[in-house]
Design brief:
The chain is an alpha/beta fold. The chain has 12 helices and 21 strands.
């Protein structure tokens, strides 16, 4: 080994998978450096262990663009155990059996729950995390992160801190995700502007409609726009794309950036740009090949018919449906109590139909009103959800028990005593009558939309 290529004598070694995720370099690239004797290392039966000093050096090369290794620990002599998801560490972790996570909704931080999960047990994740700089969730919701900060998710001072915390969550999700699993990450963009962090979407809507008289000086929860290194006041921050780039750097595959077009979007008091009416669903995969059945969700061909190859031959036939496109049109749901901008049941149902089969385990780390969990139950999948807010956990429990029943905001209302028979076998995609009924109950416009679809056929 060429000593000139090595760092000083290391005080610690970390697994190459941790090294890749913390530095933002691909595992294959790090193996190339190992073969060229450019990294101090030793080989184990299953992997390579890389010098912590070299990991720190490589991470510094990626800054300021990207490195998952927090700036606050770049110069520490040894890595914090909380940073290492693949390296054996001295701290004891109580790992629960797979069955513990079947059909439950728990209170708590998703990272704490994922630390208790065995590796590779989740088939699909469909979730909508807190967006950056939009809301202040009720109560004291501060989280201790690997970078040493203690702040509520979405309340970070800068967009970079938010993206860093998002990637920390995605690292844990990557560990517990099956090799053929997928993550459907619903995220909206935000502006670098002086903003009120409203405690609910309903409060935000009232402010837009001029029904609140809050003044900036007296409002307790707010975000400032000045002082950023490059973003100007009123700049669109491009958060979904920063998250997608970060996901690539920790080894996830970005397979699609789906646009969710919302026909009933919340109005905005802006006069110098179009009103935002879409969000993104980032489809992430752990491996090149993953579970995805395109036949279970299609869309009507625009012209009423399309040409399809038959069994890979040159023979063609005319069909009424085509493969899903990357623009999905769903209205937001208004049946979720305080979760007034929650995504509709149709959205997680589509994601899960494409990515799961009966008996798979579905996870929502930010359970909210429980729509993803209810969709998983309908499709005969196991579900596990968690949320840091007690009221959200209660709402999700009610939602799973009665998917078609609205959350009307009455928190003292008794939970439904019976479970409706809405469970649909994922092995029988043609049996959709119960799902169609549920979607029409939730969204009055769905019925007319279904008629348009059928008329085109």
């Amino acid at each position: 080994m060429n000593d000139s290529m090595l760092s000083n004598s290391p005080t610690a070694f970390v697994d190459i998978q941790d090294a890749a995720e913390l530095t933002g370099f691909a595992v294959k690239y790090l193996r190339k450096l190992v073969r060229a004797n450019k990294i101090d290392h030793y080989k184990t039966q299953d992997s390579f262990m890389l010098s912590w000093n070299d990991v720190q050096r490589l991470a510094s090369q990626q800054k300021p663009f990207w490195a998952a290794l927090p700036e606050s620990v770049v110069n520490e002599e040894k890595p914090k155990p909380s940073l290492l998801l693949h390296t054996p560490v001295s701290e004891s972790r109580e790992i629960y059996p797979n069955e513990f996570f079947f059909d439950k909704i728990e209170l708590g931080n998703c990272i704490d729950w994922m630390k208790r999960m065995p590796s590779k047990i989740i088939q699909s994740v469909v979730t909508s995390p807190p967006y950056w700089g939009v809301r202040k969730y009720p109560g004291e919701q501060r989280i201790t992160w690997a970078d040493g900060s203690r702040v509520g998710f979405g309340e970070e001072a800068t967009v970079e801190e938010y993206v860093g915390h998002t990637i920390e969550v995605l690292r844990h999700l990557k560990r517990v995700l099956k090799d053929d699993g997928t993550i459907w990450w619903n995220l909206g963009d935000t502006y670098q502007t002086r903003a009120y962090l409203r405690e609910s979407s309903r409060e935000r809507l009232k402010a837009f409609e001029g029904q609140r008289s809050d003044t900036w000086r007296k409002y307790p929860n707010k975000r400032y726009s000045s002082g950023h290194s490059y973003l100007k006041d009123k700049d669109l921050t491009m958060v979904p794309f920063m998250v997608a780039l970060g996901a690539q750097h920790i080894g996830l595959y970005v397979r699609s950036m789906i646009i969710w077009f919302k026909d009933n979007t919340v109005p905005e008091p802006t006069t110098d740009r179009p009103t935002s009416s879409h969000e993104y669903i980032i489809l992430l995969a752990k491996s090149r090949f993953y579970k995805y059945d395109k036949t279970r969700e299609t869309e009507v061909a625009v012209t009423g018919e399309a040409v399809k190859r038959v069994n890979g031959t040159d023979k063609r036939e005319m069909v009424n449906e085509r493969n899903l496109r990357t623009v999905w049109q769903f209205p937001t749901s208004s049946r979720h109590g305080e979760h007034t901008a929650a995504f509709p049941m149709e959205l997680p149902l589509r994601c899960l139909k494409l990515s799961t089969t009966s008996g798979d385990l579905v996870f929502d780390p930010f359970a909210g009103s429980g729509t993803t969990l209810a969709a998983a139950k309908i499709l005969d999948c196991h579900y596990f959800g968690c949320d840091i807010d007690q009221q959200s956990v209660q709402d999700a429990e009610r939602r799973v028990l009665a998917p078609a029943k609205p959350l009307n905001g009455n928190h003292n209302e008794a939970k439904p005593k019976h479970q409706p028979s809405l469970r649909i076998s994922a092995k029988k995609p043609q049996d959709n009558s119960a799902i169609q009924h549920l979607l029409m109950e939730e969204n009055p416009t769905y019925k007319s939309k279904a008629k348009v679809r059928s008329s085109k056929r």
